[in-house]
Amino acid sequence: MKKIIKNTITTVAALGLLAIAPMTMASDAGHGGDHHATGTTTATPQSTLKKTIEGNNAFMHDHASNHFDAFQAGQVPNLTIITCSDSRVHTQLFGFEPDNNIFAIRNVGNQIENSEGSVDYGIHHLPTKVLLILGHSSCGAVKAAMGDYSGETKGIKAELDPLQPMLAQDNGEGSFNGRWADNVERNVDYQVGKALELYGDKVQAGNLAVVGAVYDFNNLWGKGRGAVVIVNVNGENNPNIIQNHPVLDQLAKSDMITHVGSRVK
Ligand SMILES: [Zn+2]
């Protein structure tokens, strides 16, 4: 019994380390950054689990039992999202309950290649009408891919290697932080291209829209902090053309100003 408890604590401690790891990746030395320092957490495995379960108590309190009736039998989401595992990015940023609305896939650097089967499931089997590839400002994975990560674990290297092709467009000119943000957008464009290789026939048939966007909590795209900025629709990445794209024709004109943009085009 004692041994089981010890193993459990070891596992929880390891999970705690995993939660801290992205912060380290996002704030590694050398290049500075325009984001606030992430610092170190004073949390312990015990305090983290306490907070987690208390949070679920509040969730249960706020959601009456009949809230769950609609999706007892299965899911019918309309949106597949591939986004980064970064703790600052989450599906609540759209302002609606993600329940039964969002089929979410997350990995470092919001990549298709690392999770192709999960994306296939969302597109072919559910099937959702929109595939949203959502990058974000201050992405530690993009930053790490721009540097020397040869000393990282086998697993991390395997997650960062697929980002290399999109970095070919980075000519190394300008500030590091500017290039970093530009590469976040280039990665979104690159992932949209990958998606079109896989699902282009559905897009052609009008059954799917592949949308690339950036969740910008640093205002690096100039649309305001917290804005989701659309940078690519079905492979079109010119913001002037995107604004007239039929897929966006139910958006208000003001939304085009706030939610369509680009740093690199
Ligand atoms: Zn990220």
Explain how this protein is built.
With 265 residues, this protein is of the alpha/beta class. The protein folds into two domains: 1-62, no CATH class; 71-259, Beta-carbonic Anhydrase, Chain A. Helix content is 42%, strand content 13%. The protein is built from nine helices and five strands, in the order ααββαβααααββαα. A five-stranded mixed sheet has the order 2-1-3-4-5. Helix 1 (2-26) crosses helix 4 (140-146). The longest helix is centred in the last third of the chain and has 29 residues, at 176-204. Zinc ion (ZN) is lined by residues 84, 86, 109, 136, 139-141.
Q: In a few lines, what is going on in this structure?
A:
By secondary structure, this protein is an alpha/beta fold.
Q: Largest beta sheet: what is the strand line-up?
A: 2-1-3-4-5
Classified in CATH, the superfamily of the largest domain is: Carbonic anhydrase
Q: How many domains, as an integer? A: 2
Distance linking N and C termini: 61 Å
Q: Assign an overall shape.
A: globular
- Unreliable parts: 1-36
Rg over CA atoms: 20 Å
Q: Indicate the mean pLDDT.
A: 88
Report on the biggest sheet.
5 strands, mixed
Oligomeric status of the shown chains? single chain
Spell the H/E element sequence.
HHEEHEHHHHEEHH
What percentage of the residues does DSSP assign to strands (E)? 5-15%
Number of helices: 9
**Beta strands, count:** 5
What share of the residues lie within helices?
Answer: 40-55%
